[in-house]
Amino acid sequence: MSKVEIFKDCKNNLGEGITWSQNNNSLYWLDIPMPSKLYKYSFDSNKHQVYEMPEMITAMAERDKNNLLIASHYGINN
Description:
By secondary structure, the chain is mainly beta. It has no helices and 7 strands.
């Protein structure tokens, strides 16, 4: 790699937890600070979505197509 490029300049405070979904050709990531934001970028539609979360999200994983398992400081939700 000889060149680094910004993929999406979304101004995250602490962006992490990048998760690739082969099922829907999308990239997910979190901006961790309270309250957290969940980001989704669809490569099929070139659409970027931001979801305001009501609490601090600490981890996530894809369960199946369009269904995420989300862990917060309160517990696990799906």
